[in-house]
Amino acid sequence: MLFDTTINSIKGLDNEAMEKAQERLDNLTKPLGSLGRLEWIIKKLAGITGEVIPSLRKKTVVIMCADNGVVEEGVSSCPKSVTSTVTRNFTRGITGINVFTKHAGADIVVVDVGVDDEINCDGVINRKVKMGTDNMAKGPAMSRKEAIKAMEVGMEIVEELKLKGVNLLGTGEMGIGNTTTSAAVSAVLTGNPVEIMVGKGSGLTNEALLNKISVIKHAIELNKPDPKDPIDVLAKVGGLDIAGLTGCFLGAAANRIPILIDGFISAAAALVAINIKPEAKDYIFPSHGSAEPGSKKIMENIGMEPMLNLEMRLGEGTGAALAFHIFDMAVTAYTKMGTFNDATIEKYHPLE
Ligand SMILES: Cc1cc2ncn([C@H]3O[C@H](COP(=O)(O)O)[C@@H](O)[C@H]3O)c2cc1C
Ligand SMILES: O=C(O)c1cccnc1
């Protein structure tokens, strides 16, 4: 089964490449460590790829699109049909992520992993597991088998992109209601109270926010997801979009491709992936801190610090695409700066 083979092929980072990268970083004509977390990016890229001088040849944001049955409980400001409309719009070049990826010199791959509509649109890959999840306020969102199938969709997509030469991935999603499922999944897995994981998503009144909180609490009480079993949590109170992205994170780790978290939803997927296989964390980078309050709590739980804090809350992969620029700059500085061998200055050493 693809799921098991993927999980079993996730291995640790290449320490030798990391040491060599550190050596080169320390030889660049600058005070030791002065490029801060840009140096951390380079070292981690070297460990992931095994290349001492990593190059970012092909960058792609994978957008997992799916509907969430819980929308019928009034948890989103938008009708469910917006999922299918925006999914189509990704192919028309007019959405936020189209603009962000174009500017970053990156591509998008749009995957229908469970939109409740026949999309039939060039540019949208049809890997529908089912026509949206069921309403988790009335029973499990999906079966365990469906959750695994959706994760396998993400794993397959990553394998296909690897064959096409993609070597930096971003994660994006489109699914009305998915800030509700992300809050549910992350509350259970981090052990935080639902209230502090929930935000207004794409926009809610204060009253509607209270309803969103009580719907999530009810869904958790009803389905009793087991916090020690991340797949159970994903299946009972998650979504096909989150599951697809979880598969992308695990697939990227198995295929040794660096992958960036975007906002709250993709952070919830990364949280599930890390709970399934802790070593996957080595292959995952944060990008921005979403305005959704639960995003910060997930970051704390997985021990990551966002690179950007712009209070964005769009999703689609926009924050990940924005962070591609930081990666480009890190690699450019690392490869284009002179070394102490080139410069006519002594190597700096920190004062004892
Ligand atoms: C036009 C539009 C485009 C979007 N692109 C991403 N989202 C974002 O908002 C949704 C989650 O918010 P909630 O949980 O409140 O429904 C997701 O689809 C997410 O990707 C959008 C939302 C809208 C309305
Ligand atoms: O953090 C995100 O990505 C996000 C937040 C609100 C709505 N949609 C996406």
From TrEMBL:
NCBIfam families registered for this protein in UniProt: cobT_DBIPRT, PRK00105.1
Protein's UniProt name: Nicotinate-nucleotide--dimethylbenzimidazole phosphoribosyltransferase
Transmembrane portions of the chain: none
GO terms, molecular function: nicotinate-nucleotide-dimethylbenzimidazole phosphoribosyltransferase activity
Pathway linked to the protein: Nucleoside biosynthesis; alpha-ribazole biosynthesis; alpha-ribazole from 5,6-dimethylbenzimidazole: step 1/2
Coiled-coil features, chain-numbered ranges: none
Organism this protein belongs to: Pseudobacteroides cellulosolvens ATCC 35603 = DSM 2933
Keyword check for ATP-binding: no
Any single GO BP term: cobalamin biosynthetic process
Family according to the record: Belongs to the CobT family.
Catalytic residues identified in the record: E316 (proton acceptor)
Matching SUPFAM superfamilies: Nicotinate mononucleotide:5,6-dimethylbenzimidazole phosphoribosyltransferase (CobT)
Catalytic reaction list: 5,6-dimethylbenzimidazole + nicotinate beta-D-ribonucleotide = alpha-ribazole 5'-phosphate + nicotinate + H(+)
